[in-house]
Amino acid sequence: MFKLTWKGHFDAAHKLNLPYESKCNKLHGHRWEVIVEIESKELDENGMVIDFQRLKEVIEGFDHSYLNDYFFKPTCETLAKKLYEKILLLFLTDKEGKPKIGMSVPKVKVTIKEGPDSSITYYEET
Description:
Layout: E1 2-14, E2 28-40, H1 52-60, E3 65-66, H2 76-92, E4 107-115, E5 118-123
Parallel strand pairs: 1-3
Antiparallel strand pairs: 1-2, 2-4, 4-5
Helix pairs in contact: 1-2
């Protein structure tokens, strides 16, 4: 079994539209830290669980963006789930977007930190 851990970050703004008083209802930004953990029994044709560059590409699209353009509710939770889905898709398709055949799907966990004291982890039970 192989366990990969990768960390990255991006800067992005958002605002929450909560039905109660919160300073988070105002436009603000974070340096979002992303921690990806992948457990796999298999390696790809290059002898890797996955190329770190492909993980970096997943978060690059969010850098210096306004997250409300991507999410109806741009919370740490919805961001973690969206990144999980994008990373899982890397294992299901090749670089051209064609389905991969015969490779098992690894266990993936995505942790998002919007500051030094707050984080959320998203994963699916198998």
